[in-house]
Design brief:
Blueprint: H1 3-28, E1 43-49, H2 56-63, E2 71-78, H3 84-94, E3 98-103, H4 112-121, E4 128-132, E5 136-138, H5 142-153, E6 157-159, E7 163-164, H6 169-185, E8 186-187, E9 194-195, E10 201-205, H7 206-211, H8 224-234, E11 239-241, E12 248-250, H9 256-275, H10 277-304, H11 308-330, H12 341-361, E13 365-366, E14 369-370
Parallel strand pairs: 1-2, 1-4, 2-3, 6-11, 7-12, 8-9
Antiparallel strand pairs: 4-10, 5-12, 6-10, 13-14
Helix pairs in contact: 1-6, 1-11, 2-3, 6-9, 6-11, 6-12, 9-10, 9-12, 10-11, 10-12
Pfam families: Glycos_transf_2
GO molecular function, one term: glycosyltransferase activity
Domain Glycosyltransferase 2-like: 44-211
């Protein structure tokens, strides 16, 4: 075995171990929502929607069951072409806390979702702003427990993912590698790199929102959740990722195909922010090849290698599995599939190559809009 092969094997094992240690350590700092809710302060919920007739009814129905005493719900329609507006109007007619704001789409220089949230905030008066995706459904105590978490952690921003309503392979094949990549450059408390924000659910104090410049400061941002949490952190706010999966579900990732399309949309949008579609496609393509190698190499070394190569391959395989196991456990899902983490990393690499191809050929349409 040559010196170069030995160094390469050692490097793979070391990188896998470092990334796993970082991911496991990050999840150990994530606390669950408090058991007791806090019923203090007015909360304004803002929901951006575009062609959400399948999910918006459940989202609003669950929010209307919130036990928090002072609540308003503002739905901002981003030029929907389906029955979204009619469904929302039914809730408006039934509950004075619910309001509908309609737009013709974002003006030049604005991303659609960011513009919708910006317009929604302008219609609210709460001490706290809660941004939720329309494919989420909330337990009756969600708002109160988010406020309790902010009080417990002395935080200006609290964010949580939602658990899937139908577990599927997209979570361990695509979302687990995404999580490891996220923690490479971000941290749950914003102390290292960027601050973590999960678009499913973000609660922020109005004071911190205003100090950070609000959504106007991020008008053209596509990776809006992490960018927003980081902006709040950089403006002096305290941010925290918490485990609220017992109080929030998300149906938007209930199939492998849905996870693939959602992740591809985010990758195309994030790549374009690097320096335009061509530079973004190049970066995505390079990252895709790296991830494919990062996944396949431990399997080949472990199954076909000898001596040090096999040991290094097994170490890399174990480390990658440990990283994915911490994510699956955090998502309250079976950890058995984490043993196939190298295959998941390779699959994520294929997703990145697909994203690069989409970016080169003209972008990835998401509900009729180019995400670049």
């Amino acid at each position: 075995m040559g010196k170069g092969a030995i160094l390469g094997s050692a490097a793979l094992a070391a990188v896998s171990t470092i990334r796993a240690a970082r991911t496991v350590a990050a999840w150990r700092t994530v606390e669950p929502l408090p058991d007791m809710a806090l019923n203090k302060g007015k909360v304004s919920v803002v929901i951006p929607v575009r062609d959400e007739e399948r999910t918006i009814d459940g989202c609003l129905a669950s929010l209307r069951t919130q036990r928090h005493g002072d609540l308003e719900i503002v739905v901002v329609d981003d030029a929907s072409t389906d029955r979204t507006v009619q469904i929302v109007q039914e809730h408006v007619d039934a509950d004075p806390r619910v309001r509908l704001v309609r737009t013709d789409g974002p003006p030049p220089g604005w991303a659609g979702k960011v513009h919708a949230m910006y317009r929604g905030v302008a219609e609210t008066s709460g001490d706290w702003l809660l941004f939720v995706d329309s494919d989420t459904e909330s337990a009756p105590d969600l708002v109160g427990k988010l406020l309790a978490a902010a009080d417990r952690d002395d935080a200006d921003l609290i964010t949580t993912p939602g658990r899937p309503t139908v577990p599927n392979s997209g979570w361990w094949l695509l979302l687990a590698p995404t999580n490891v990549l996220l923690f490479d450059g971000a941290s749950p408390d914003g102390s290292r790199g960027r601050a973590v924000g999960i678009g499913h659910c973000i609660l922020v104090s109005r004071a911190a929102y205003d100090k950070a410049g609000g959504w106007r400061a991020l008008s053209n941002e596509r990776a809006d959740d992490v960018a927003f949490a980081t902006a709040v952190r950089d403006a002096g706010g305290r941010t925290r990722l918490v485990d609220g999966l017992d109080s929030l579900t998300s149906s938007g990732l209930d199939s492998f195909g849905a996870v693939w399309r959602s992740q591809r949309k985010s990758c195309v949008a994030g790549g374009a922010m690097i320096g335009g579609p061509v530079a973004g496609a190049a970066a995505l393509g390079f990252a895709g090849l790296l991830h494919i190698g990062y996944g396949f190499a431990p399997m080949l070394m472990s199954l076909r290698g000898k001596g040090f190569s096999r040991l290094a391959g097994l170490a890399a395989w174990a480390a990658q599995s440990a990283a994915h196991r911490s994510y699956m456990r955090a998502c309250h899902m079976s950890t058995a599939t984490s043993v196939l983490a190298p295959a998941a990393n390779a699959a994520f690499g294929v997703l990145l190559l697909d994203s690069a191809w989409r970016s080169l050929r003209g972008g990835d349409l998401w509900k009729g809009r180019d995400m670049r």
